[in-house]
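Table 4 source record.
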Amino acid sequence: MDVSSLTDEDLDWAECVFISGMAAQRRSANEVIARCKARGVRIVAGGPLFTCEHEQFDQVDHLVLNEAELTLSGFLHDLERGSPQHVYSTTGFADLRETPVPLWELVNLKDYHQITVQFGRGCPFNCEFCNIASLLGHRVRVKTGGQIIAELERAYQLGYRGNVMFADDNIIGNRKALEQDLLPKLIEWRKTRPGINFQTEASIDMADDPQLMQMLVRAGFERIGVGIESLNAECLSECGKHQNKNRDTLADVRRITQAGLVVQGGFIVGFDHDDAGVFQQLTDFIQESGIVAVAVGLLQAIPGTRLYERMKREGRLENTWGGNWVEGTINFATRMDPDVLHAGYRNMLKDIYSPRNHYLRAKTFLRAYKQPPEFRIRSEESGRLTAFVRALVRLGIMDRGRVYFWRLLFWTAITRRELLPLAVSMAIQGYHFRKVIEERVS
C-alpha cells in the first residue's frame, strides 16, 4: 500500500488479507479492515499494533500475534485443516537463525528506493515510552552474518541497487555478534558490490567507540538514527533512558559525524519534567549540532509500555491518540499546559524546517562531515543529471527558500565540492519535510 493503491479488485481476488502494522498505522489498518468486512474477505492480522491491542480489533477473523516465526505456522496448519482459531500467541522468542531469506520476487523491487533487512531483535535498554523490550525482549537475538549476506545477495541478483535499511532498533545492541560476524562479512561482500549503502539506528554510546564506528563505515553504513529524545537529565531519568545521561550530547553527535556517519536525530517533547523552555532548548541544540534530518514527536503512551501503565495508574489516559510525529495530538494528560505544549510543538517544527534554519544546519553538517571513500560512488549516482536539474528548478527557482538553496550550493561547490550531491539531497529532504509540516501542522 506504500507504492500502489488497494483496489476492490484486489480484495475480490484474495482468499485472505494479511495485515501488519505499528501503532502509528492504526487509522490505515482500521480502514483496510472495514473494506475487507464490506467485501466479505477473511482478515488475518499480526505485528506490533495487533499484538499490543488485539482486544480492540474484534472484526479481525484471526490474530496471529507475537513473532510470526513461532505463531504463523500453527495458524497455517489449522487453516489447511479447516479449523483456524481466533488468536495465536506465544510467550517465547524466535531463534532468528532459522528465519528464511525473504521472497524478494513477490514485490517489484523497482518500486522501492530502500528495502529492509533485520539483523537483530530486542533491546538491552528499558525506556518507559518504548514497547520494544516488552514485545521482543531485552536479550538481543541475531541472525548470522551469512543469513544477512544471503538476503542482500538475493535482492542484488534480482537487480536491486538502492539503499538498504537495517530495521534494528539498536544495531549495536549485540556488539560481539556485530563486530565479529556481521560487519566483517559486509565489508567483504561490498568489495564486489560497490554502491550498496546501509542505514540503521543505534544508541548514542556508539560515539565512545571509534573502532566500531570505523567498522560500520567500512561495512557501508552511511546514516544512523539516534534517539536523543531530551537534553534534560530529569526527563531522561523520568523515562528510564539512562544511557543518554551524563553525556556531552553535542560532542557525541560531532564525533559520529566526523567518523563519516550522517546522524538522523529523534527528539520527544511532553515529558512531565518539560517546561515551556524545552522548545527553544532543543531548537538551539539541533541548529548547533548540524543534524539535518530531525524528527520531533509528542510523547505518546503506547499500549504495552511502562508509560502506558503508569498513565493508567495515575488516571491520566485520554481517548485521543497521536499517530505519527506530525499528527499533533497526545493521549494522556500532560503536566505542561496542553495549549502551551501544542503551540510550542507546532512552532518548533516550523522553525526547524524553515528554509533558513534547514540550510544553515546543512552547511554546519557539511563543514564537519568527513565523507568516506566508500560512499563516493553512491553519492555520485544520487546526483544524476535529471534529478539535479529538477532540484534546481523546484528549489532554485520556484521555492521561497531559493536564496538559501543557492547559498548552500555555491558554498559547497567552492569549499566541499565532493559533497555537492549530498548537499542537493539534503536540500530536497528539507523541502519534503517542510511541505509535510505545512500540510499537517496548522
